[in-house]
## 1
Amino acid sequence: MQRMRLAALIVLLALLLGGCQDTGEVENQAYVLVLALDAVGDGGLALTARVPKIGISDAQGDKGDSGSSPYLTFSVTAPSWSAALDALQWATPRRINLSHIEMIVASEALASRPSFASLMNGMADTPHLYTNARFVICPGSARSFLEAEETVIGTRLSSEIHTMLSQYARQGFIPDACLADACYCANGIYGDPIAIWGDLAEDGSEDGAPISVTKSPMRQRFSGAALFRGGRFVQALSKYETRLLNLIRGQCRTLCYTWQDQAIEFPLRSSSRAVRIEGSDITLSLRLKLGAPGGFGEKELSTLRQSMRNDIARLVGDCQRLGIDPFGFAESASGHFVTNAQWLAFDWRSRFARAPLDIDIIIAK
Amino acid sequence: MIVLKLNISRIASIPAAFVGATIRIFLDLALDGGTIHNGAWIAALLSALPSIPYLLCLDAVQSDKRMAIPLRFMLLSVTALDAAHVLSICVRAAGCLTLDYVPAHFLALPLALAVLWCVWRNGDAVGYAAILWIRVFPVLLLLVVTLQMRHYNARWLLPLLGNGFPDIIRSGVRASGWFIPATAIYYVTDRSGDKSGRRPLSAWLSFAPAVAALLLILRLMMAPAGLYGLTWEARLDALLTNGRAPLYLQLPMMLVFFFSAFHLLTCECFAASALLQRLAPALDGRLCAAVVTVACTGLSLSGFTVTAVDFIAPWLYVAVAATAALSSLLQGAPKGGERPCNG
């Protein structure tokens, strides 16, 4: 009798579970893979979502015919983020599901708005939105950037985006940046946010660049970092500068450094940032320990070290002039203070802008 | 006729109270107390200090039979209210993770039925579940820490005091107030078979704030403390996924969160049901459990608990101190704790 009661209770529990409702079916969801945000008019927003059709793979779909394309693109305009999401729900014949987003792209024009920080917060606060999505800033239209996205090597766009951006981040061409990190930095007390810089390019040589991609089935180029001041986009870094940025942040295993027309690989052994505070004066200190590549003598390594030091000093100097700290020096400096109030009163941004930098590069064999 | 007398043995109640206190302090400082700040883990540690007199009085309480009716009623009210609040936390957390919008009662009812079934199994089932959870929890936590290792940043613990000492003390006192509902299960313990020489409850429970502090340190290293208020859902997201955990890594985090919250909920519902039976001895334990569970579910669905808990949380410690002092006065001097009478 007791077992019967227990069985009845379990069946009752199962009936009441939310997952047993028909509204929760996977087929009823429109899983957004890429979300693009553009500026429209005075404070308006255009939101574009790319959604895969369920049951059709890229191999089956004919990319030339939009009717059989495996992806659908929905675009709406609205005065705010919440209104745009609402309009997107209205435009899409399935329930919009943001839990599997791989990439969020914002146009440079939108990211340069003073209200962009609150837009990022609105996105991060949206229920079910996957905040680990890669965060990309692009010049021109974000919608065009989204529409240029297609599977090149893989069979699914979701795995293509994930694999491609992980690969670029590992190589150091882009920062390993996601929406959550950008929001944390924009709202927090530890330096400024960064994002991935993406651009559309045609085949052919890049303007004056000694190294360029001349042919690729991909129109999208992910190379560089977008720098923010607070929560607002300020400037983009090139792929060479981004490699140095990743090196300073300790977020790359190997530095590929171009010197005298040669690409030289240095395994990164350690990277440490420190800040010395003496009264109102601060000194930034950077210590890098790199493995020595083969085939270089002491004299060449010394020249290389000097060249690298100059490049790093130039990059940090440029950021100091802009009043941006994407390197994480603020994290080190905040440890000198006991409370948040003391740290905020220190006015890190203005002191960082005029702080001397002490660089120590060790290339050990 | 009384079929079920709600009771729990001392050996089962101590781990139940320990797990309950740990989780309640953590939930208060990480989720309920507004935006988390760097000093939250110090506040958790400090919450042990004001709790010491209360815990010593708990040790001194030899039997709940002489506890005054107003005190029992106060304990019952606070514990039931907190159980309703913990149920609403579970419901809101489940709502954040469902594929689609699901009405709150669909999420609350299965939980309420599961709690009811646990309480009907009586106190030892609840207590021994805590013993099991104490063994499983570190394994799951180790898995979470291993998976999240590369995202931890110790520098996010600085500046050390966060918003400063006044805020830490305020948070610590608020957190210490949660000892009363979280440890209420100890008031309904059957201590008839106690032997001398056992370690007192205060010794065990004094570790709870330390464990909560350790969990808060892990939370603070996962995502930096913000200076500005984010929504409850955003705080939960930072707690469960740190905003950066890939979807497949979220499962262990969610298991840890849900099992811990569910355990706290069961402990508090059991304690409230047993206190109700002490107040109305003619009622059967199963009826008491049903009344408490239905009341808690109704309260949690009303949305009243969030406002009520926010209102009483800063003052709860005063109630704790008053309860402990009155209990001691009513029972007289501790007379050497729980030593058996040799005469």
## 2
Amino acid sequence: MKFRFHHNGSSLSLDSGLCTGCRRCVEVCPHAVFSIVKNRAAIVDRASCMECGACALNCAPGALSVVSGVGCAAAIINGMLSGKSPSCDCSASCC
Amino acid sequence: MLQALNKESLPIPYHQIAMNHCNCPGQHAPNPPDACPAPRLKEDPAPPSGLDFGVITGWEPLNTIASPMVANEHVSFRERLRNLSVRWAYKRHNHRITPGLYSFGAPDGTSPVLVTANYKLTFDKLRSHLSGLQLWILVLDTKGINVWCAAGKGTFGTNELVNRIRSTGLARLVTHRTLILPQLGAPGVAAQTVEKETGFRIKYGPVYARDIPRYLANGMRKTGEMRTVHFTLMERLSVVPVEMIHALRLLIPAILVALLLGFTKPESPIAYPLIVIPGCLLIGTFLFAALLPYLPSRAFSSRGAILGVLWSALVAWLTHTPMSSAWPSALIATSICAYLAMNFTGCSTFTSQKGTEIEVRLSLPWILSGIFAGVLLPVILTILL
């Protein structure tokens, strides 16, 4: 069962010109968003991207960028209430 | 002493070190008796308080390099019981083990090194799948948080990993330069930076600990399946208890509101609000998680609202409550279901921050108006009519 969510992957961008084809993004992506096509990374399933940031952080040549953050409504509501950016450090009862 | 060893003296009998809980290679210069303490037995008084050690025993700090602690694959009945209670949010925040290096089986200088978090639940899950393997486990201090969440916070992160590699003297223990990290640690760790700082190359292993033996046997190669995170029925249900416990905070307000509604409309059966409003705490958590893939719509809140409407209608039908008196309770129950469902985004494995943010901004006004309308309108109508 493949889950989808609205606006997933909207901030993910790939600069193929910088890509060295090291496969790191394929290795770290938990939702099989990437594939290697002609020795370069390609985004093959953007709608599955949860923007966790693993690919961009581990992309040595800096070909990938994504605005990552927590996809947690409680964190976002807490962020709205406290005026800070949403984070997992919302409360002692959270993950 | 380990730090006194030069490269020529490698490999030292690591498994003996591990088993004896002592870092003193006997063939070297005699040690003063105090420098080589007696083996620490399982029954020994527990080391530092506040930490849950379970069966992990045997650690003796030795100058700057701590000798490896010992772990095995056996998770005792008591530990399982404790892990179960953690699943129900009982004392969840002190369920951690000492960070540092652990030996598993009888590893030597060529054995693989796994890296993990110091959440006890995580560590127990990991070691229970390693039966028959010989390896090192480097436990990072993630403040008792699981790998994926800790990676998101940055505690399972580049700095902690680099510092932990240095403080444990890992480079002097193993001859190879490869670390196997859980794939879900990747959002916190920049592999290229770790390699630059420490010389250790990072390989991201499988998502699930159960795939580690196959991954190692396969020459550290992952299949597509090993890379993919799921959200199966069992995985969804395993996170439900904590959600239910959190939802219980709404129970007393829910009952009070139900009583209020029951009394403002005396002609209606009071049973209806008393069933439908507190009941939705279970519907919005347990049933929602179970049915998540089968509910239409991509937004969690609207999926929850659908369940709320169905639940309200079912109870109305069962208790023969007419629509005219059921609507305030139904409105409140539906709003609470939508809210609880929306909160489940934090438990899920596939929601982005952007999408969740948009969902919160769109849904929250509806949820709040639903609750206020359900509470206030009947009161106002009673006063007016």
